[in-house]
Write a structure and sequence with these properties.
Layout lengths: L1 H10 L12 H10 L8 H13 L3 H13 L7 H13 L3 H13 L7 H13 L3 H13 L8 H16 L6
């Protein structure tokens, strides 16, 4: 079986079911990180994410945005990263909202805009994205990231964030 998978990978045949990855995005994630008998292949992951994102897959757009932001298997391009993250954000991907908010806070690939960052963080927090809940708590506590200082609300958000982060499955 190992030879069959290796041969299929060499000729570019999709072996998603044999690798335990049912969708193009799952297959791309596998190539991005490696595992389950598959060697990490970021350029292949990039190509798969790109194909899926061009077809309208919001999760693929998120990963493509991250790859452009970090220069992984592609030249770092924060403007293109922002466009893909925006597309994923419009489809309610909270991780993309949070990543795009960080671009706005840093002025990386987009004009620095604390208010836009705050709105994205709030939306991601409303979708229970733990990192966004935590960022909102910090913003409220410090009066940063476009948030007005509100210590009582910051404390409530911090409790929510700690609870959400505590419920996350641990990586093995």
């Amino acid at each position: 079986m190992r030879r069959l998978v290796a041969a299929a990978l060499l000729v570019g045949v999709s072996m998603a079911p044999a690798m335990g990855a049912g969708t193009v995005v799952e297959q791309a994630r596998l190539y991005l990180q490696g595992g389950k008998g598959v060697r990490a292949d970021p350029p292949r992951a990039f190509a798969l994410f790109q194909r899926a994102a061009m077809g309208g897959d919001a999760t693929a757009a998120y990963y493509l945005g991250l790859m452009y932001r970090n220069g992984l298997a592609v030249t770092r391009d924060p403007e293109t990263a922002a466009r893909w993250l925006q597309q994923a954000s419009e489809h309610q991907v909270p991780a993309a909202m949070f990543a795009l908010a960080n671009l706005y806070l840093a002025g990386d690939g987009v004009e620095r805009d604390d208010d836009a960052a705050r709105r994205l963080i709030e939306k991601a927090a409303d979708l229970d994205y733990p990192e966004a809940v935590m960022a909102m708590a910090i913003g409220l506590r410090d009066g940063s990231m476009g948030f007005e200082r509100n210590e009582a609300l910051a404390e409530a958000q911090l409790r929510l964030a700690n609870r959400a982060l505590g419920q996350r499955p641990r990586a093995r």
